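Task card 7
Instruction: Convert sequence to structure tokens.
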Amino acid sequence: MTAFLSTYENKVDRKKRVSVPAPFRAALAGSSFAGLIVYRSFRQPAIDAFSRDVFYQLNSRHLSRSLEGDDFEQVLLGGGDSTFETVMAMAHEVPFDGEGRIVIPPALADHAGISDRATFAGRGNRFEIWAPDTFRDHQDRAIEAMRQRFGNGGDG
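Output:
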């Protein structure tokens, strides 16, 4: 299974091209598609990114559950899992160019507030692409919430 770890910040050019961090590209090296599946995050002002293989696995599991439940109508007509179908309709396939860059679709760049720089944040089986300042604020709040939760209160 692919694992995306760490955080990287890269420059975005005028054409909205950005280099995907080399460790993330290396994690995707065995994928069936030289690129990413991206869509707007439902929870954050960010872009969610997966390999096509993970997306295929999710689709296969969705189909298998429908078939195992003898829900052939859902398989043929849809409508059984609106979240999954909504994500599938929103998703974009973005291929890597020869230099390991992707073009961020304009609507996704707008959603995330990405202009001249992008932050890539590893999230295990996926990663997120953020505007750097927005990510730093989000990460600072998340760290502070963890400190409070675990009783450290911000000390050391």
